[in-house]
Amino acid sequence: MREAFADYLAHNDRVEAIFVGTRRTDPHGGRLGSFQRTDGGWPGFMRVHPTMRNGTKVEIKSQRSRLIGGVLDIQFLRHLNIPYCELYDQGYTSLGGTTDTHPNPALQVVSPAGEPSYRPAHELEDEELERLGRDW
Fold it and tell me: What is the pTM of this model?
C-alpha cells in the first residue's frame, strides 16, 4: 500500500489529500480523526476519513456529507463526481483480497423466484455488521 501511494503521488504531485475508507470499527479506526496526516514512514498527505463518525457531519470544501450506518452517503460522492468502487453498489461493505471478500450477507435479499441479490452497501444500517462479507 505504501508503494502504491508513493507511486500515485509521484505521478500526481498536486494531490495533497486522499479519501481513505477507514471506518471507526476498523482495527485502530477508533483512534483516527476525520482528517489526519499520514504516519512516519508513509508518503506524506492528508488522509480524509469521511466514514469515521456515525451520526456526525464532515465538512469537505464547504460540502456536507451525511453519514448513514457509518457508510458515507453515496449520493454525496455522486453529487461531487467522486469516483468510488462499484462493488459497494453490489453489496460489498468491506473490501479485502480477491479470495476473502464477499457481498455482505446482511444486505442479501431473495426474489420471489428464490434468486439471491444484494442491496447496496449504503443501505446497511448497523455499522457493526460492515465486516460480515470478509473471511477471517
Answer: 0.61
Cell of 47: 488522509
- pLDDT per residue over 35-68, tens digit each? 889 988 999 999 887 654 444 434 333 333 333 3
> Higher confidence at residue 74 or residue 105?
105
Task: List Cβ neighbours of 116 (8 Å cut-off, separation of 6 or more).
Answer: 108, 109, 110
Listing DSSP states for the chain in one string gives -HHHHHHHHHH-TT--EEE----TTSTTGGG--SEEEPPTTS---EEE-TTSSTT-EEEETTEEEEEETTEE-HHHHHHTT----GGGGGT--S---TTTB---GGGEEE-TTS-EEE--GGG---GGGTTTTB--
